[in-house]
Predict the structure.
Amino acid sequence: MAKGKTATIFFCQNCGYESSKWMGQCPGCREWNSFVEETVSRTSGKGSGACAAQGTGRAQPAVLSEITVREEDRLSTGMGELDRVLGGGIVQGSLTLVGGDPGIGKSTLLLQVCRNLSGEGHSVLYISGEESPAQIKMRADRIGEFASSMFLLCETSLDAISDTIRSRRPEVVVIDSIQTMFSENSSSAPGSVSQVRESTSVLLQLAKGLGVSVLIVGHVTKEGTVAGPRVLEHMVDSVLYFEGDRHASYRILRGVKNRFGSTDEIGVFEMRERGLMEVQNASEYMLSGRPENASGSVVACTMEGSRPLLVEIQALVCHSNFGIPRRQTTGTDFNRVNLLMAVLEKRSGVQLAACDAYVNITGGIKVVEPAIDLGVVIAVLSSFKNHVLSPKLAAFGEVGLSGEVRGVSMAKQRVAEVEKLGFDTCILPYVCLEECSRGGKIRTVGVKTVQDVIDLVF
Ligand code: TYD
Ligand code: MG
């Protein structure tokens, strides 16, 4: 294509969907009013893949069986929770995206990582396009002492940043945030989809070509003309999202993509006066502040990656004053809860049709695993019957449409976690009972149907 030829394209700022004309709703992600006009140069973006980034010109095909794999060089971040989400540490020459709402603690987390890495003698460059050196210094003072191998650069031009990285060759680079960076190759405004992608492709070439590990901050934006981190998920090696309520002190870091390890791992942190602290025993943390002698509360066990996590499920079921009852969920899937209530009504004759129901998973965590079904069912029944359950009761299992309780994976680890936290009874799918028969103190009860649970507990 002719050099410098430009085109006008409309991009969805939420998911990066491209269109030649403006649309009210994005066909890709169903977001309303997210299209923004951008001028893109058609010559840019060519050869920005990882192979072209090696700088060796045209790549040659290789015999797959003859390719040797060496163990990736990983740098420990000095935080066990983060290392686990990354699959063991930061891989050399990798590109990692850390997304999250503004103010959730992304800059704080990465500054702490920089502190730990520079303390170990690694050279680190923290590049900020958002804050002044004095602002960053103020945050750094809250976190602690920094070694002299930690450098700071306040810059938004990627050409200048590339030159600095090429001349200084740091081992780790942090870009805070990608939405403030701009590359001269693209004429769009910083934060637009094409600019964010172009900037990421420059960083990708640097990471793969020079072997520097790059950590990118991406703000999740609810609206407006700033592109969200989702538009560059496909370009990076790992994607981590920071979740949690900004008003509460805990934060959950979730891995949603990882080319060097498993996804779905989570790390739990707490925001304190002096930065983010790791929460070692996440289950205990999630259960803190449980009400005593209250109906509608039960503990369920879910798996977060390789780790079992206990969560408290609360339900409030009351008589509805309207023709269409109100149902609401926090922290779990709304449709799933409605489905489970329909199963209870049809299979066990529990009259829930005229009841409002509110289901909440405490701790600010979002659980979509079907293994919490049994917990939801018990919590709803407990509130409906106003029956207070034993505080030392936990449950897990998937509930099917016929009211059957189905097996779930890693039952043994779940029971072990339930026992570790001092529970005395665990209700689980009958098919998992054999796997879990261990000589521990905990009483495991296998159930086959929802009716069995009702007979057993109520
Ligand atoms: P920040 O890392 O700036 O968020 P992000 O980069 O994701 O936008 O986090 C800012 C919040 O964290 C801010 O509200 C202040 C709070 N905070 C603490 O509570 N303790 C601390 O030690 C630090 C550094 C920040
Ligand atoms: Mg920040």
Remarks:
- The two ends are 73 Å apart (CA to CA).
- The chain has a mean pLDDT of 88.
